[in-house]
Specification:
The structure holds two protein chains of two kinds.
Chain A lengths: L1 H17 L23 E5 L6 E5 H15 L12 H25 L4 H22 L29 E5 L6 E5 L11
Parallel strand pairs in A: 1-4, 2-3
Antiparallel strand pairs in A: 2-4
Chain B lengths: L12 H22 L1 H27 L8 H24 L7 H29 L6 H15 L1 H27 L4 H22 L10 H9 L10 H26 L12 H4 L5 H24 L1 H11 L1 H13 L2
Chain lengths: 191, 333
């Protein structure tokens, strides 16, 4: 009995001792300020360019870095957003298990008549098709940074994007966006 | 000729129950909507400890001395409560040490959530087996919920905060079915009134400015109700909603369950098999009951001395009572 009381007392004191240890603050710290500088962007369509490039002025980048350092001491917050790899793996495994268990239960329950099964397959197919079409992206012209992005037909989408290389140059005074604008291959008989 | 019989209205106990429930909710909604932070502090101060005591007393009355055919169910149930509580407290109190990065702590928390969900799924499955029914669909539901807990952990945690009060209402429904079936219809009307009060609160508070977060306690209360997870919603609305639901939860455990189940009346110890049965463990039960009363009084003392710290410690240990609800609730299905 004495040992039990001693143990409980020890646990109580241990509990109050560790209660002082603070929990990590899981709140992503977002500063109300954003780092920005005013500048001018040049967009250059180049026939000879092989890839899109955004060239940043070294001087302006240093200025921007100083702004960022002034706000949060240069701390990176890139890890705070999005879904991590382990979350994706665990989520995928668990969702698969959910589907497997639901399927096994459904098959074992003996409630699957032919019309119900057909209906479910049609529903699942419809849902899948909807997901596929809903996720279908805009046309390739809006998904790559080329000269075609600026044609009239693309204005309908009001957005566009694509892979880009970021470069820092000491020679440029302002940021420059290099946009590849390859010449259309001539169709036979156009000469 | 057809006779039309007019039945005179008779005020039954079910009517009184309905009127009292709706009236208390109405007064509560108005007060909580007006003073959410103050009511949050007061309700936790007054009812947090006692409602845990009442839950323990209720579960004790439902726990058989011999588990018999339910041995596996109770073993998984009680074992799960002990293990999950211990792991939770370890994660909670050890999370500030320098060995754990924030990312690893989040993974441990997700693993704990998965274990919790699969444990609850197992309880449903075992209960289904006892009732000779196939409840293996519980595993599919459990894995689906675990997926949510991994993909959107912050919303999952917030959902638990808001759903926990409803567990008490579910207990009450099961209990009314058993001991006061004549109140069941009235109780369902009571339950239907809750969304009405919530819509009323949301309509009034949606445009209110956010509540102050200038002290650590106020920040904690705001954070607990999801003010940081849902920044586009007024924190006044969130805190009021949470306090309103928590207050109903306390109201159910402290007043309504003893009202519908005489075995849950605290001083009727002869109704507790572990205490009154010849094969019971009366000394151990009495010691634990006394310990629980002491903890409740100590909580009041702690709240009076340092409310914020005591609140944090209370909510860490409160996971035990949240977990203990599951085996007993599932057993009542």
């Amino acid at each position: 009995m004495k040992i039990l009381i001693t143990f409980i007392a020890l646990m109580m004191f241990a509990g109050s001792a560790v209660a002082d240890i603070p929990r990590p603050d899981t709140t992503p710290k977002k500063s109300a300020k954003t780092a920005s500088i005013d500048t001018h962007l040049d967009i250059r369509l180049r026939r000879d360019a092989k890839e899109a490039k955004l060239i940043l002025s070294k001087a302006q980048l240093n200025q921007l870095r100083a702004e960022i350092d002034a706000i949060d001491g240069g701390a990176s917050d890139t890890a705070s957003a999005g879904v991590t790899g382990i979350q994706t793996i665990a989520g995928g495994v668990l969702l698969s298990l959910a589907m497997v268990f639901a399927g096994v239960w459904f098959a074992r329950s003996g409630r699957v008549s032919k019309p119900v099964a057909t209906g479910l397959i049609v529903l699942a197919g419809g849902a899948l098709a909807t997901m596929v079409y809903a996720n279908a992206g805009p046309p390739p012209e809006a998904r790559s940074i080329t000269g075609k992005m600026f044609v009239q037909g693309m204005h309908y989408y009001k957005f566009g994007g694509g892979a880009i290389k970021l470069e820092v140059s000491a020679e440029e005074d302002n940021p420059v966006l290099i946009v590849p604008d390859p010449e259309e291959p001539k169709k036979p008989g156009e000469e | 000729m057809q006779n039309i019989r007019v039945r005179p209205f008779q005020l039954t106990s079910a009517h009184v129950f309905l009127i009292a429930f709706v009236s208390v909710c109405a007064v509560g909604a108005v007060l909580i909507g007006s003073f959410p932070l103050q009511l949050s502090i007061v309700t936790i101060f007054l009812f947090a400890g006692p409602h845990n005591l009442m839950e323990f007393r209720y579960f004790a009355a439902r726990m058989p001395v011999r588990w018999g055919r339910s041995r596996l169910f109770y073993s998984v149930g009680i074992g799960g409560v002990v293990v999950l509580t211990a792991v939770y407290l370890t994660l909670y109190f050890a999370s500030g040490n320098w060995l754990w990065s924030l990312a690893s702590w989040q993974v441990y928390a997700a693993v704990w959530n998965t274990a919790l969900i699969v444990w609850v799924g197992s309880l449903f499955y075992l209960r289904g087996k006892q009732r000779r029914r196939d409840w293996s669909l519980a595993f599919a539901a459990a894995f689906f919920l675990a997926w949510l807990a991994w993909i959107v952990p912050q919303y999952w945690s917030l959902a638990l905060v808001y759903l926990h009060p409803f567990v008490a209402m579910w207990f009450l429904e099961r209990q009314i079915r058993r001991t006061r079936p004549e109140w069941l219809r009235a109780y369902r009307l009571c339950l239907l009134s809750i969304p009405v009060f919530l819509v009323f609160l949301w309509a009034l508070l949606a445009g209110q400015p956010n509540l102050p977060q200038d002290t650590n306690l106020f920040w904690r209360i705001n954070q607990h109700s999801g003010a940081e997870i849902l920044p586009s919603i007024s924190s006044h609305l969130l805190v009021a909603t949470h306090v309103f639901l928590e207050s109903i939860h306390y109201f159910v455990w402290l007043l309504l369950i003893p009202l519908v189940d005489r075995r849950a009346i605290p001083w009727r110890l002869k109704e507790v098999p572990m205490f009154a049965n010849a094969n019971g463990i009366p000394k151990a039960f009495a010691a634990f009951l006394v310990f629980s009363v002491v903890v409740s009084v100590a909580l009041w003392f702690g709240f009076a001395v340092d409310y914020t710290t005591t609140r944090d410690i209370y909510f860490a240990f409160a996971i035990g009572h949240v977990l203990a609800e599951f085996p007993f609730l599932v057993k009542m299905l």
